[in-house]
Design a protein that fits this description.
The protein is of the alpha/beta class and about 325 residues long. Helix content is about 45%, strand content about 15%. The chain has 16 helices and eight strands. The chain has helices at about 20-30, 35-40, 50-60, 65-80, 95-100, 105-115, 120, 140-145, 175-180, 195-205, 220-230, 240-245, 255-260, 270-275, 280-290, 295-305; strands at about 5-10, 85-90, 125-135, 155-160, 185-190, 210-215, 235, 265. The chain has an eight-stranded parallel β-sheet with strand order 1-2-3-4-5-6-7-8. Helix 4 runs parallel beside helix 6 and helix 8 (about 140-145) runs parallel beside helix 9. The chain binds adenine (ADE) and zinc ion. The site of adenine (ADE) has 11 residues, from helix 3. This is Adenine deaminase. It catalyses: adenine + H2O + H(+) = hypoxanthine + NH4(+).
């Protein structure tokens, strides 16, 4: 039985499995530049974040209708349930769809249809987090927030993702202020490939409550001390870090050292269709590679509920 857990760092577009991509391509009359699912899987050899993002954005071409987004989310939730996920806070990238002529309403309402049935169908409570692409302009982020206004009842918060280096958090100060004024929660990717200073900036300038990844905080002992003191959650994604070459091998992942340092760590799958595992697969992988015992794994599962946007975290009682 997998441990009950919350997943807090999951890009719904990163759950697009090759089989579903080809099925949606056929339904939507799209020809993919891969012969078959096997050829597509063979392309999943990444040098860094950008080489992954190029493929990830390209494959989104198959997502066109509300039904497509509903099916994508429902397929993730079905797999997540088998992995012990009881609560999921799900990222989506509206700008990556709007640029292809897919309306933000199609994206949010399609995802929303799957999410509103999730508790009943899969036993998973959900929240939706809208991410801004940091390699797009600040104006585009503001326009995206504006376009999302009719759908805000479906969204708990905003995030920041895509190519990190050269796109510091402060670029998005205005849109994060606007999001806060609308009552939205705030998170941001920081310290995945970017320097520890981006983590500090996300906290101080954007007012985020959680740091997505945060891996590189370990290069700055004062920052680690602050994150421990303020009990700022980090949503780590160890399999992603290996696949995107932030670290060489899982055995070198700093997760255990980060937990020893007192950081509030969670373990997540990021883009599981691309990185070789869903969240419980990730728990197993870190147990094997880092020698984490059952108590450590339970701590990670408990942390996931504490770090979530659930009130009261009743799931905590079950652990
Ligand atoms: N978008 C999807 N996955 C991402 C990641 N790991 N980092 C930044 N942006 C992303
Ligand atoms: Zn991510």
């Amino acid at each position: 039985m997998p441990l009950p857990k919350a997943e807090l760092h999951l890009h719904i577009e990163g759950t697009l499995e090759p089989e579903l991509a080809f099925a949606l391509a056929a339904r939507n009359g799209i020809t993919l530049p891969y012969a078959d699912t096997e050829a597509l899987r063979k392309a999943y050899l990444f040098d860094d974040l950008q080489s992954f993002l190029d493929l990830y954005y390209g494959l989104m071409a198959v997502l066109l209708t509300e039904e497509d987004f509903e099916e994508l989310a429902d397929a993730y939730l079905a797999r997540a349930a088998q992995q012990g996920v009881r609560h999921a806070e799900i990222f989506f990238d509206p700008q990556a769809h709007m640029v292809r002529g897919v309306g933000i309403g199609t994206v949010i309402e399609g995802l929303g249809r799957a999410l509103e049935r999730s508790e009943e169908r899969h036993g998973i409570s959900t929240r939706l987090i809208m991410c801004f692409l940091r390699d797009q302009s600040a104006e585009s982020a503001l326009e995206t927030l504006e376009a999302a206004r009719p759908h805000l009842h479906r969204i708990v918060g905003v995030g920041l993702d895509s190519a990190e280096v050269g796109h510091p958090p402060a670029k998005f100060r205005e849109v994060y202020e606007a999001a806060a004024a609308l009552g939205l929660r705030r998170v941001a990717h920081a310290g995945e490939e970017g320097p520890p200073a981006y983590i500090t900036e996300a906290l101080d300038v954007l007012g985020v409550e959680r740091i997505d990844h945060g891996l590189r905080c370990m290069e700055d002992p004062e920052l680690v001390e602050r994150l421990v003191r303020e009990r700022t959650p980090l949503t780590l994604c160890p399999l992603s870090n290996v696949r995107l070459r932030a670290i060489d091998v899982l055995e070198e992942h700093p997760l255990a050292r980060m937990m020893d340092a007192g950081l509030l760590c969670t373990v997540n799958s990021d883009d599981p269709a691309y990185f070789g595992g869903y969240v419980d697969d990730t728990f197993h992988a870190v147990r094997e590679a880092l020698g984490l015992d059952q108590e450590r794994l339970r701590e990670l599962a408990r942390n996931s509920f504490e770090a979530s946007f659930l009130d009261g975290s009743p799931e905590d009682e079950a652990l």
